Amino acid sequence: MRILYSAIDQQVPGTKGGSTHVRAVAEGLAARGHELHVAVSLGRGSVPATPGVTWHGVSPPWGRAQLRLLRRGTLRDLARSVRPHVVIERYHNFGGEGLLAARAVKARTVLEVNAPVIDYPGSPKHLLDRLLIAEPMRRWREWQCRVADLIVTPTREILPAGTPAARVIETEWGADTDRFRPDAPQATLPVQDRIIVVFVGAFRTWHGVLHLVRAMEQLRARGRRDFQAMLIGDGPERPGVEARVKAAGLDNVTLLGARPHDEIPGYLAAAHIGVAPFDIDAHAPLSLTFYWSPLKVFEYMAAGLPVVAPDIPRLRTVIEPPACGLLYDGARPDGLADALESLADPTRRATMGAAARRRAVDRFSWAAHCAQLDAALQRL
């Protein structure tokens, strides 16, 4: 079938998780025989050349996702040109342009929801909505969920109450298990002959990269010079991380900056432990529930790395400790350092890493995600 996929606030090619998600879903559905037309913001470099996928450059005005709806005419024209059977839209509070385009061509609709539709306690957006009396933002978000034929989400807890269960598919994100694998060609690292602890992700408070830096300080204070942290990514926390590393003289922490996603398999193949030190208290929307489907965790597992992360219920179901990694008590100041130190034994790491790889291939690949989505599209 022909599918129009609207994700215009995501940049492809790009380095963020949303970009990886859009590309993986488009390519995965194309591999299953569908014709994909994908509307995205075009990033630097060439768009991926994939049989069955056509990329259309459509970005929000001035790059502002909050203005996505102003592109509804562009999406409608694209839909009339493509004549899709299904329109998939990547949800945004101020989106809906894909759903409106689907109405113009009488296509079925899928809403991909990766962030809360409902407001969290104390949300400034909720307070503003109440001041507007009619709560237009809430009503618009709920309209999007109400008109979608199918909603795909990591957890139904972030959907409006009363959303029919029959229209919801709960499914995790995944990893490209063909590219992320233990025997992938290794990147050359600046430090050798140490236990390489890798972090890949955004340098934002709630991703917890400073917790890993603190853990490396603690390990060094214990005399553990055999651990080396490699930090891959960028964001507003980076200057603070760099300042702390420099002030503490931490030669066991290396910042590699942002890297193209195509290079990440090589870095993970050269590492020994993958760390996802989320700080859910630092991000108010996470007070609803841990709704993320963490791309880094699936890619660590696919690369055969034991995963170390805080003890969050949803992560337990993914990592199944101690089979595929360790979960630590985030309230304990030395919890992360203790978990890392307990993985100094290479045999233990190898056993966990092999189990993580098997679980990623069986449960958390993009191929599995797209197979589930494809089955739902066929039912539509």
CATH level 1 name of the largest domain: Alpha Beta
Number of domains: 2
Classified in CATH, the superfamily of the largest domain is Glycogen Phosphorylase B
CATH level-3 fold name of the largest domain: Rossmann fold
Strand content: 15-25%
Note the run of SSEs as H and E: EHEEHEHEHHEEEHEHEHEHEHEHHH
- Helix percent reads 25-40%
Radius of gyration: 21 Å
Strand order within the widest sheet? 3-2-1-4-5-6-7
Q: Total number of helical segments? A: 13
Mean of residue pLDDT values:
94
Low-confidence stretches at least 5 residues in length (pLDDT < 50)?
A: none
| Largest sheet report | 7 strands, parallel
Shape descriptor reads globular
Report the structural category: alpha/beta
N-to-C CA distance: 11 Å
Summarize the structure in words.
The protein is an alpha/beta fold. It folds into 2 domains: 188 residues, 3-Layer(aba) Sandwich (Rossmann fold), CATH 3.40.50.2000; 169 residues, 3-Layer(aba) Sandwich (Rossmann fold), CATH 3.40.50.2000. The chain has 13 helices and 13 strands. Helix 6 runs parallel beside helix 7. It is globular, with a radius of gyration of 21 Å. The mean pLDDT is 94.
